[in-house]
Amino acid sequence: MAPADSNQAGRTRSLSFGDYVVGAAANGRVFGCAFGDGTVRLFDSLTPDAEPVSAKPHAGAALCITADIDKAAFLTGGDDGKLVQTTILGETKTLAEHKHRWIDHTAAHAGSGYRVFSVGKDAYVLPKKSDGEPRKLGHKSSVGGLAINPKGRRLAVSHYDGVSLWWLGAKDSGPTLLEWKGSHLQLAWSPDGAHVMSAMQENAVHGWRLSDGEHMRMSGYGAKIRSLAFTRKGHFLATGGADTVVCWPFTGGGPMGKSPAQFGDTEGVAVTAVAANPKLDLVAAGFETGAVILGQPGQGRTVSITSGGTGAVTTLCWNPDGDVLLTGTETGDIHITDFRS
């Protein structure tokens, strides 16, 4: 799977469902995909040619998806105000409901057992025991993103003017506020938990080193950054939002004052999604044309996965073994690329 000069790599199966692919997550061998019509479809990465299991957990649109703490399930939020668990068998169960509101972000950590979702300005931590009440975490503005740190103990919540950090196990404690003016959206923790990075509405990435609060600001992007991901060992942060895959170095003191490593220059076609391989130092990148490539930060050579023509890539997701890649697009296409054959 190392990048090499090639026109195509892997064996790709393509399916079309006609509805916007909101997001995808992997839980064990199974990919879960949420669609704009409220449907969740489940694909087995070990048998990518099999038909997906389908469920309809939401009356309206699904807005987010994440792997549940249960290895056989996924969590989705919808514009019907429901947080729903969908099992790999297609069975659904409503875990929380906020009528006439949107549940637009979810996060879960299997190791610590925490599940979190957001409604407007508030994030809610589900109790580990089913008979308890969710813990409400309030913020001054709407939640833009949720992320639980690698150890599963701390929650990052992005919003206007910064990011709030909450200790999930300390019910009476308040947040630590990481301040920076502007609207903060997607979040990423570094694998060692030392850095929190936020994609901003203002076509920039901002981050903080938690040990001393040092700010990191990376700007100059031509488009909104809809996706960011650390490579498996945290050496690079890969980002969308430009016509090349911009990868900021996080070794030797961090990225400030350093030039980013890049690959996949497309001359005016924006990167809309990135996903770091969990086993190798590779990054998959999807573009607004629907094309997907595979490359390494700072290396000029890339591998073409799909050539495009099916709508902008909205999501990319690797299975845990890093040998199957799922791509979703805004036109409802799913591409499953198997690198084992």
Task: Record the SSE blueprint.
Layout: E1 11-16, E2 21-27, E3 30-35, E4 40-44, E5 53-55, E6 62-67, E7 73-78, E8 82-87, E9 92-97, E10 105-109, E11 114-119, E12 122-125, E13 135-138, E14 145-148, E15 154-167, E16 176-189, E17 195-200, E18 205-209, E19 214-218, E20 228-230, E21 236-239, E22 245-249, E23 261-263, E24 271-276, E25 283-287, E26 291-295, E27 302-307, E28 313-318, E29 324-329, E30 333-338
Antiparallel strand pairs: 1-30, 2-3, 3-4, 4-5, 6-7, 7-8, 8-9, 10-11, 11-12, 12-13, 14-15, 15-16, 16-17, 17-18, 18-19, 20-21, 21-22, 22-23, 24-25, 25-26, 26-27, 28-29, 29-30
Task: List the defining traits of the structure above.
single chain, 341 residues, mainly beta, six-stranded antiparallel sheet
Note the main sheet: 6 strands, antiparallel
Mean pLDDT: 94
- Spell out the helices and strands N to C: EEEEEEEEEEEEEEEEEEEEEEEEEEEEEE
The strand line-up of the biggest sheet is: 14-15-16-17-18-19
Radius of gyration from the CA trace?
A: 19 Å
Shape: globular
Going by helix content, strand content and strand pairing, the class is mainly beta
Uncertain segments: 1-7
Number of strands: 30
Give the termini separation: 11 Å
Tell me the helix content.
under 10%
- Helix count, DSSP H or I runs of 4 or more residues: 0
Strand content: over 45%
